[in-house]
Amino acid sequence: VVTDKGKTIECNVVGLTAGVAPNIDFLKDSGIEIGRGVKVNRFLETNIKDVYAIGDCAEQHEGIGSRRPIEAVWYTGRMMGETLAQTICGNPRKYNPGHWFNSAKFLDVEYQTYGWVFSERGKKETEQHFHWRHLEEKICITVAFDKDTNQFLGINTFGIRMRHEIFDQWLTENKDIDHVMTYLKDANFDPEFYKLHEDAIVAKYNSDYNKNINPKKKSWKRIFSIA
Questions:
Q1: Most buried residue, 11, 61, 70, 167, by CB count within 10 Å?
Q2: Whole-model pTM?
Q3: Domains (ranges, CATH) in the chain?
Q4: Conformational region of residue 131, where left means phi above 0, alpha means psi within -120 to 50, and beta covers everything else
Q5: In terms of Cα–Cα distance, which of 88, 31, 81 is closest to 58?
Q6: What average pLDDT does the chain have?
Q7: pLDDT in tens, 134-154
Q8: What is the 3-state secondary structure (H, E, C) of the chain?
């Protein structure tokens, strides 16, 4: 690849990520307030009575928490639809997407994220990362936590499938990273006969932070009490 600066980058695969932009040109003279998308409040209402917007085109006046004003992912569109259905049926409800999560597949590697794990450039001063990577396979995790309080902030996983409900509750209850490491096996969602890596992950965590966490065996009773 030759950049516009004349620099040559040797590579085998090039991936183009163009992003997503709402197609709202047809609304320019409608009187509906628009920005990058269709402007909505927490009830997903536009500035015109009985006109709503949901999904990829909806733009919150201000992002909810650390979320962006426009979220072009399928599950937020689904939750917006469920929320708006309540309002239309006479039970006004604000859109509350809860903790950030997403999943995708890059070539043959599955990816999941729960909570917030910011880049080195974007993370807060008190945010610290624990990283574990398999020595041979395309499997790794990064866990973000507050270095002052040890509060668990989020996790990124590559090649390991995790259980959404578990992390959602841990984030809601402000669990610390020691709790996450202790019960990490409960969160594993890989099918039977897949290799498990929690013991190796916790061993590295213990080594990195001079801890002595003993990971608990998976408990379906604990899992079902959350799910």
A1: 167
A2: 0.84
A3: 25-88 (3.50.50.60), 101-226 (3.30.390.30)
A4: beta
A5: 81
A6: 93
A7: 999 989 999 999 999 999 999
A8: CECCCCCECCCCCCCCCCCCCCCCHHHCCCCCCECCCEEECCCCECCCCCCECCHHHEEECCCCCCCCCCCCCHHHHHHHHHHHHHHHCCCCCCCCCCCCEEEEEECCEEEEEEECCCCCCCCCCCEEEEEEECCCCCCEEEEEEECCCCEEEEEEEECCCECHHHHHHHHHCCCEHHHHHHCHHHHECCCCCCCCCHHHHHHHHHHHHCCCCCCCCCCHHHHHHHC
Question: How far lies 23's CA from each of 34, 37, 38, in Å?
Answer: 11, 8, 10
Q: Tokens 């408990």: give the residue.
A: 219
